[in-house]
Design a protein that fits this description.
The complex is a heterodimer of chains A (186) and B (287).
Chain A lengths: L2 H9 L4 H22 L2 H22 L4 H24 L28 H13 L3 H11 L5 H7 L4 H21 L5
Helix pairs in contact in A: 1-2, 2-3, 2-4, 3-4, 6-8, 7-8
Chain B lengths: L2 H9 L3 H8 L11 H26 L20 E6 L1 H16 L17 H6 L5 E6 L6 H25 L12 E4 L2 E5 L10 E7 L5 E2 L13 E5 L5 E5 L5 E6 L34
Antiparallel strand pairs in B: 1-2, 3-4, 3-6, 4-9, 5-7, 7-8, 8-9
Helix pairs in contact in B: 3-4, 3-6
The chains are: A mainly alpha (186), B alpha+beta (287).
Chain lengths: 186, 287
Amino acid sequence: MDDSEIIALFLARDEQALRETESKYGKICLALANRILHRPEDAEECVNDTYLKLWDAVPLDKPTHFAGYVCQITRRLALNKRRAGMTEKRGGGDDTLPFDELAELISGTQTPEELLDSQELSRAITRFLETQKPRERQIFIRRYWFFDAVEEIAERFDLNPKTTATILFRLRKRLKKYLMKEGFDV
Amino acid sequence: MNIEQFDAAMTDIGQNLIAEAAMPAERKLPILRKKTVGAISIAACATCAAVICGAFAVMQKPEAPSVSSELPALSADTETQTTTTTAADISAVTTQAAVYVADETLPSQPAQTDEILADANESAANTESAQTIVTTSAAQSTMAESTKSTAGSTDALTSAATTSAAQDGEMMMWCIRSSYLEWNGKQYYASDTPNVRRYTQDKYLGKASDFSGVYADDGWYLLGSSDEIYTVKETDTLLFAVKPSGKIVPLVCGWSIEEFEPERLQPDYIDPDAPADPEEYHSFVIF
């Protein structure tokens, strides 16, 4: 079923919307949640929460890119759940997501000036990615948004893992340069 | 900026970008235009017409066709080699060559096949006898060229290839545009670092213009649209672009010129005839 038809079902408050969403995006959401949470039962719960959230939010938001919208909700819920879990563990290290690769972009400190508008940073990253070649930006998003392993990305794009790592390295360098130019403290 | 901030910002990037990345990736296959395939097929047919007819009876024979030549290590200069084969070989070879071009994957086909030029006139007249065929690295370029040469101009083609580098009025200049082409989803950048003498030219893939990438027929680009692209035997991280003059530009996969590490491309093969100073092959002519 087409995304616009699913959205129409949501707007009509037809529960078929949830079944269609699950059939079309259930797998990708579950995979994303699993990569973030590493616990199948938590991931499944997270995906169910996604459907609930969609039920409430779609009529208000009327998303234009439904796939991105659905994945975004799952990611947000999964990351929140992960953070909550880590807080409970008190200082459990976050070594499963590829944040170490982003160390050059993340200073780790946060001055009052740096309590910047997160949306402004999102917009800057979006602008940057939109200027990159489609394949390269997809590789970047697969790695740092969907948290795919480099080997998975290489297979997906029919590339050598070394080539993929090189592309990511170049993109990180370019993003850092771009964010600095835009006035962000990286 | 800390991790949470960055990650929150990443989460909120454009939904269009997320949706794009969520979709199955497009795998870039080599693009060979229909007209190219058509032209090659027609050329192959023209070349083979007499050969196939004459060789058909020979092909019924039980003995397997064999090409008794070792591939020469490719050099910047064109090398000429004489080898012997049967008419059956020629027809099989030529037919296979056309199939290779139509098949975009080109994985592990016999290497010698598209290196053979057959003299169709001779083969038509004498199908049962062994024939002399001429191979040249320049002559490998297309089956279309093979057709031209079978009209009796193989010698001319060979000599043109051997002397072209000297006659083209070489002009050394810096190339500031990064040329590359895409094949099988990978980017191959024109580079002057690998020593082409260390590699053996393998299968013909098509003209540069058949691939997506960045190249142009002016002095600022190493790679021209009429260059012919070949795989090399020793590694899949290198392609050869053979210019109309026979000059070779190596295309290095996946990393740019400044990040190239020479060790990465060292194959086991060592050319005993390689000059003591490989620097002489490190510069290329811009056409």
